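Entry 14: structure prediction run for RWD domain-containing protein 3. Input pasted below.
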Amino acid sequence: GITFRIQISVKELLDTDVLLKLLFHLPVNYPSTLPDISVSSDQLTRAQCMDVKDKLLEQAKKHLSEPMVHDLILWIQQHLKYVIKQSATVCHEKTTLSKGTSTEDGIWTLLLHLDHMRAKAKYVKTVEKWVSDLRLTGRLMFMGKIILILLQGDKSNIKEYLVLQKTSKVDVDSSGKKCKEKMISVLCETKVQAQQKRFQTFEVKEYSTLDELQKEFETAGLTTLFSEFVPPLLK
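Run finished. Output tokens:
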């Protein structure tokens, strides 16, 4: 597929300019399949950006099987202030829900394997920002040459993280130029069962032995996940 970024400036409620950064990932069979959309803005909250994304996907469904990106951009330019207004009114309703209530799709666990990190400090900082923005928890784990990213959160946020991971320039190539992550494997993507433990925070950790790494998984109630996917990486 094709991925491209678009930045647009939109007049918002108080006639201030809002700079919207839109990322569209068009699958190979677009427009028969909906694009993946990511929305960010320094002037909007993460929740507002998620609402803008949801509204764009709603509009996209109306244009299925016909080119739609230009229409979506025009639509959000005209309707952004109404989306933000609506977002403010539903925000309070969401916060009054009990903590035990999760979204329709529930909480998911994602396990990724990275081949390498050349620009490690920058890469780690980028992952930490994405995880924070998307309200995900988990671990970025280093053990010898093995690099794993274990994440938990709402399914829609997990999906958005994957889009960012695959389409953003997060590392550098052998010549030092910024590049996208091409050596990534999705080892597992599964729903968290109600009785399972969950990570409360996101941490970057280094382990000197496989036993230490295994204990991290066991503490989170993910022993099966470890047994199935981690040992084969050592072969």
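Notes: The chain has a mean pLDDT of 81. Will compare against the previous run tomorrow.
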